[in-house]
């Protein structure tokens, strides 16, 4: 297993060795201070998964650590599994090809209670349906009757007759052993092997690979300092998939309706910035997380959202000191795409609400957050640039993560955004990775503006809702929400102008 480790001296190396020498089944193969690289040999006798080893290094040696590659052969894979129907089951399973068609499997799965579970690779990568009923038969059996302790199952084992190349794109399914019912699943995606991931610094920000992990820790520090109006811990929000064609996601978050800061009264798409109203120059130091910069004009400050919609929900404020109004710019869209590219998590999302499209503060900002539930939009297909959704929108796929490719997509998006401003239409944007994680998708919805004060105890159509993610403010709302209601909500702001979809 290859890790990036933030080590700079022999003292750091000594702490690493001391920590790792205490672990059964773990042998240090290489520590390279200059390259900030750690390579370990992990056997089936290890009591700790790769994820747990990383956590122990951080906790005991005080060294920020990122997993970079698994396995010495030509192919490795990983699957991030998530529960269905609101089950808070999450986990990571890593697979590495060995000789003689064998495969080493290392996994950790949380949220299982006291269940015994089975883990298998299934025929198809179709995760639709409330109970993963479209994954097909078992393709490669991995394990059965795995025990869990304190809700966690941690396992390492070798599987025979397993060609990883034939598993990519299929599903990895966690099933309850007794009932043989699927409770979590994920797509098997190609991963880096040892030496296969040479990237250490992101070109868009100069941030090292481990800094995203530090940024999550800063979010937790801000929680401890009381910077949030309410606390959301990872996996703590009640979540469910709404039955129907679109697999909409519903979450119960009553505090957001009661405790969030009251939104500004918006009157037009081009309201000027008002320094007398609340803006992000007035936040406390505890709410600042970090800076990100591509060039002098393409830079932003990342701050907490003190009324979060999900775990890790933060705000990207472009050129905070310049007090820009909530009007989308090419630089901020470019930076948002780079932010999604920078993240190593497929669950990382970003969104933008224009004025008149549920923006609550007239100071330019994007939402960023982690949502460990698969969106239907990740796997939706339409080469025409539009897609099958309750309200018409546009999809732009960034297939090559180069500056020229991203700038080309930004210009395509802005042809539509300019039309919005010229015709008085509000707009919402949503950015996520596709199902395989290889493509970044930008979604744009053009809609009727909705000005005036909002009722925070209802669901207002914004980028979350257009993406299929509905935040419910009461238990009754959460229990009764239906796909038909969600579709009707979107259609309340649908435009009748068809010209934009014909150009």
TrEMBL record:
Residues 1-65 form the HMA domain. It catalyses: GDP-alpha-D-glucose + phosphate = alpha-D-glucose 1-phosphate + GDP + H(+). Belongs to the GDPGP1 family. It holds the Pfam family HMA. Gene3D superfamilies: 3.30.70.100, Superoxide dismutase, copper/zinc binding domain. This is GDP-D-glucose phosphorylase 1. Its main location: cytoplasm. Its EC number is 2.7.7.78. Keywords: Cytoplasm, Guanine-nucleotide releasing factor, Hydrolase, Nucleotide-binding, Nucleotidyltransferase, Transferase. It is found in: Cytoplasm. GO terms for biological process: glucose metabolic process; superoxide metabolic process. It comes from Leptotrombidium deliense. Its cofactor is Cu(2+).
